[in-house]
Amino acid sequence: MELGDGGAASRPRVDKEVDFANYFCTYGYLYHQKEMLSDRVRMDAYYNAVFDNAAVHIRDKVVLDVGTGSGILAIWCAQAGARKVYAVEATKMSDHARELVKANDVSDIVEVIHGSMEDVVLPEKVDVIISEWMGYFLLRESMFDSVICARDRWLKPDGMMYPSHARMWVAPIRSGLGEQKKNDFNSAMADWHSFVDETQAHYGVNMGVLEKPFHEEHEKYFLQTSLWNNVHPDQIVGSAALIKEIDCLTASVEEIRTVHAEFSSKIGADRTLVSGFAGWFDVHFRGNSKNPATRDVELTTAPSAEDCTHWGQQVFLLHPPIRANAGDVVGVRFVMSRAKQYHRLMDVEITTTVRTSGGKSLQPRSSKFFIE
Predict the structure, then answer these.
(1) How far apart, in whole angstroms, are the C-alpha atoms of residue 324 and residue 210?
(2) Of 111, 118, 132, 298, which is the active-site residue?
(3) Which residues of the chain have pLDDT under 70?
(4) Is 132 one of the annotated active-site residues of the chain?
(5) pTM of the predicted model as reported, rounded to 2 decimal places
(6) What is the Cα–Cα distance from 251 to 314, expressed in whole angstroms?
(7) Which of 16, 38, 142, 363 has its CA 20 to 30 A from that of 158?
């Protein structure tokens, strides 16, 4: 996930020390910032949203950039005519942001604040909150929590959110990755069995009692962990389903803690394998009902042959895949919630039921996944 332009803005809690430490570490490095700043789909969407709507949303306004990272969104807002921009960043990337703000001659407008959004105290309310908070499959990393905190504390009653709306999508796909991961798992288990035999033969110690936990470890890693992938549109074999819509102006943390959806997808390809499901998101910059955007800008991470993003798609592979024909309907129950151990990561459960075009219903199957 990326915040602002890839920064961090949330406060560590004692019971989540490792979780938060890993998170903040990542965004404190320039190589990671560069990856996101090189994403043209991402950059163009934010640039167009700011400058195409500058006259109605940014000019002479007070802006808060949550998780400013390198500070580029704050700089753009200043260049678009903002009266004042508060750029909040929890990592040492704030030092680099200050240098960039100074180098781009907007230090009289942009104030970089090093601290967590939950702790920062601003001298005034703001007209606009801008943030690039979206993680893999939108909600991974839970950055939106900090944006909600900023909104509830500092946004004026008639203020607006950039982006203003977000949506999550899921579609069935075909892929050779499932077979590859299954082979990797089988190779790991074969290697384990050789290890057990060799340890017994050479050192007289039986390691077989550890086979079950080893099996569970590797099953989770190879078969139950979602994958980052750039899915080609031709790999989608059924209709995509909208599983969650978020109004950034009104959404609560409780609302995004769990995503639950039930939907059906009609298969469009004959004699195909439903290897799993791909998940992606889009966000929109629409302003608010009283002050709509001059141009509604969309940033989408949907499968594309040309316009790929660093978010890619999250792929949930089924083992074994589902054999399907055109006209078959795959019913899906989808549940995504925050992982118990690390709240910035996600647990997913997908239950599928297939109804063939001939009217036959197959036994429901449930698969569990982990979004790292």
Answers:
(1) 38
(2) 132
(3) 1-28
(4) yes
(5) 0.91
(6) 23
(7) 142
